[in-house]
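[Solved] Which block belongs to which protein?

Original post:
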Amino acid sequence: MIEIVVLSIIQGVTEFLPISSSAHLIITAKYFNFNNQNLTLDMSLHLGSLLAIIFYFKKDLSNLINNNNKLFLKITLSSVPVIIFGFFLVQLNLIDYLRGYKIIGWSTVFFAVLLYFSDLVKVKKKFKRDFKYSSALYIGFFQVISLVPGVSRSGIAITAARLLNFGRIDAAQISFLISIPILSVVSLYNLQSLLINKNFDISLLNFLGIFLSFIFSYATIKYFLKFLKRFSLLTFVVYRLILGSFILIYAY
């Protein structure tokens, strides 16, 4: 029970921050020798985050579906590359090869540096005005890299958006919205796995994880956007550099 609680809280807090939820889940599970941490549970925790972001942006999503079909298509399009590549990685059983400490450590450090330089780019674009199909594809292909633990899907999406001259708030909103199709696919995959395996004991624990992940995800989205109105992304860059350094020291 305590394992599910801890992992759910980590998922909720780290999913939408540019610090990699998968890396934190993997490292925590390995360090504390959590038995329930596996790819299925890792993905199932994303359902709580999905529900949180849908609830937080319910008005925006309603407007997208009813009044802005082009923007809805762009958001969907941006998720296609990572879904396709993720599917093949899972089918070919290559995901586990990317979950080592060395890979996580180096990706955490390298993409912290990239995040830092992207945050220096001048703001020239607005999400609602300048988010084009080319922008969606550009960010979408960047997100493929987030399949490597330590990169951070949120972090790489924000990095890509900042490199396209979007402001921090707009970059975060883009990251949040384009996460919805991805989290939806991940959640459906996990539910399918639970039904196939008929593992009802784990599924009951997953409901607790979903609830806690929802609470902490919602709070993270809300306060992260408030944070970006006053501060840069440097705090997350420094955190990633420190975390990545400790991981690499341990790995080597």
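(Second protein starts here: sequence line, then its structure tokens.)
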Amino acid sequence: MKTPFVLAVLAQKGGVGKSTLARALAVQALIAGLKAAIIDADPQATSFKWSKRRAAKAPTVEQLGERTLADLVTELQGRGAGFIVIDTPPHAQPIINLAAEQADAALIVTEPFPDDLQEVGVPAGIVNALGKPAGIILNNTPPRSHAVTMARGALAAFPMPTCPTALTHYLAHPYASAEGQTAQEREPNGKAAAELAEVWAWFTDRIAV
């Protein structure tokens, strides 16, 4: 993966764990030795509020506020950030287009159920129209469920790969969030941490090229 690198994390539907994944990827970048930052472009400021609960100073988390994405990306890169994650709001707001334009690649987050899968088309269309590398992450999946298999079949219709590792709905994720951490920090030897490492390996090998 070249650095600096900018990743947009997108979801048309709210509640699919987009912010949790954005934070986990930023922390995984730290583990990989990169200086990481998060731009919280969501008016709900979920990631920024998480940073206020966090004891560690890294990753840097900045609210977009009145600044433009381009200006904030440039500022963070000027401060040495090698990996920047843009945590976007749900729904087809203009900021999603702007984030995809600023990013080197995008990840689309979805849960594996029909109501969630039917919303993948909008962000997929945005990144596809821009010609950006992109992939799909199945998140908050129930363990040992046929829903994941069915979801993979539905997602095969999109012209981008789906990560072979689906992120299971482990309680490590919300427990860690409450403490200003991510799952791989709270339980470094846990199953959630192992899944996140697999997602990172796939992302750096298949998407961030």
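Accepted answer:
You had them paired correctly. Confirming on the second one: Strands lie at 5-10, 36-40, 60-63, 83-87, 105-110, 134-138.
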